[in-house]
Amino acid sequence: MSFRAATSSLRRTTVPACSRSAGVPRRQLHRTTAVLSQAQAEPQAQHAAGAGKTNSDAANDLPYPEFVKLNWFENAFLAAGSAVMSRANPYRGDMIAALGETTAGPSLPRLRDIMLESEEGRQILKDRPRVSSSTVDMNQLATYPEGSLGRAYVTWLERCGVTPDTREPVRYIEDPELAYVMQRYRESHDFYHCITNLPVSVEYEIALKYFEFANLGLPMTAISALFGPLRLPSEKRARLMNEFIPWALKCGGGAKSLISVYWEKRWDQDVEELRRELGVWNAPEARWSKPLTVAKEAAAKRATFMGVD
Predict the structure, then answer these.
(1) Is the pLDDT of residue 126 over 80?
(2) 205 is in an annotated binding site
(3) Distance set, CA 305 to CA 100, 102, 151, 208, 245 (Å)
(4) pLDDT tens digits for 156-170?
(5) Neighbours of 229 (CB within 10 A)
(6) Going by C-beta distance under 8 Å and a sequence separation of 6 or more, which residues neighbour residue 32?
(7) Helix pair 245-254, 202-216: axis angle to 10 deg
(8) Quick one: pLDDT band at residue 193, thresholds 50, 70, 90?
(9) Burial zone of 53 (CB within 10 Å; 0-12 exposed, 13-18 middle, 19+ buried)
(10) 127 marked as part of a ligand binding site
(11) Which stretches are tagged as biased composition: Low complexity (predicted)?
(12) What is the per-residue pLDDT for 100?
């Protein structure tokens, strides 16, 4: 099913009134999810096949393997649809990723230019490092000294019960270098959590989006920051507004642009020293689901696995 057919099908569908979830009719939500999923899953080879090209020819035409070309209407449709879906379900990482890519506009060239201004940023663009469990040895990081970035990062992962393997690949940005800038932002997101001492939950993700908007200026972070608080109960929303947002705007706006930090070259750096260098300080005290002592014990077990006491 082509993207254009999917959009046409969605426009022709009449959705009856029914029960609602997060302000969106449930059947419409399911229908939109199906259409957007089909659009995202559509291989680029299908576009080329219509022009009589082989799969091999189509692959050679792509700026990178995952790329899906969108015209202006398809981009706008996907931006609007992904905004609705990510608003309805903030755990839909694929929709949040699509929203970020389809609304990026001139922000990515600006971030790329910021990276080019520093030796560290230029090295990132040259090396194009990736962050995943296949590129970063978590057990090795656990052997770094207590207080180092490497040890702090693996402890944060243990405490939150997450891995770096959940980031969607970039699909809708044609320029390969700008696509990498978006991928780098996406895969560095957990480092921002780590150095600001924020766990993973809806309220803290919103706080970090304000931080990212002040620091990086990506439109998607502004959209998430603007509409995200509407999902929170009044008590959490009040604390977000009174404590976390003022911290996020001041800290993020005053800090060095984090897109130019080569985190993988700084594993052994003292995390407090790194915060001072970047102009970052801890967020207001957050509520964690797992005690820090338990996470540190789990990280220590990783170090033991590597033969380090």
Answers:
(1) yes
(2) yes
(3) 38, 43, 15, 33, 40
(4) 999 999 999 989 999
(5) 20
(6) 10, 81, 84, 85
(7) 30
(8) very high
(9) middle
(10) no
(11) 38-51
(12) 93
Indicate the residue type of 259: I
Whole-number Å distance between alpha carbons of 10 and 8: 5
Residue 193 is assigned to a ligand binding site? yes
User: Residue 270 — φ and ψ, nearest 5°?
Assistant: -60, 130
pTM, entire model: 0.79
| Tokens, residue 247 | 């911290």
Is 190 assigned to a binding site? yes
Percent of the chain exceeding pLDDT 70 equals: 78
299 near 274, Cβ under 8 Å? Answer: no
Residue 25 is predicted with a pLDDT of 45
- Whether the CB-CB separation of 191 and 80 falls below 8 Å is answered with no
How does pLDDT run across 83-93, given as a tens digit for each residue? 888 878 777 88
Residue 183 token pair: 């991928």
Per the listing, tokens 């690949």 go with 169
